[in-house]
Write the structure tokens for this entry.
Amino acid sequence: MEIPTDGEIRALHREYAPSRDAFELVHEHCRLVCSIAEQFFAGVDIDTDLVRAGALLHDIGVYRLESTAYVRHGVLGHELLASLGFPVELCRFASCHTGVGITRDDVVRQSLPIPVDDYLPRTPEEELVMYADKFHSKRLPPVFLTGDTYAAEASRFGTDKVQRFAVLRDRYGDPSLAGLSRDTGYTIV
């Protein structure tokens, strides 16, 4: 599988972003998620190039949201990447990073506006990008989230989501956010 370069991915973001502000917000978020994921590379047997590309591409579907529900951004990103000929191994980073994974039961029970399916990471690379994504939010202004803050936010989706996040925290630990916060000026909440 040929993995796109950082420059090629940046060009995709520029091409599909509906505005400069959207590009700056989403691409910066993807770069920060990549930086967070890289903190967990030591001692983990994964394809680091695939993780890097997956982190940089995971939110490309945000550009296609328009007025539709935010939960759709993963599916839209997967569809966009597939339409551009990307292999499924890269497309899945878009569709399988939301929350700590969306199950078929979640889709039905919550009447989510996405096709009924499981949107769960299947590989260590997908799991790592999903996990790293929990520590930065694109809210305005963007912020870094501690593990405790994300766990509290996940609780609104059920205790099973909090437990799943706790398993991931045990597996990977919490990232160091102080340097990233200092470099970007984003606060840690």
User: Anything to note?
Assistant: The mean pLDDT is 96.
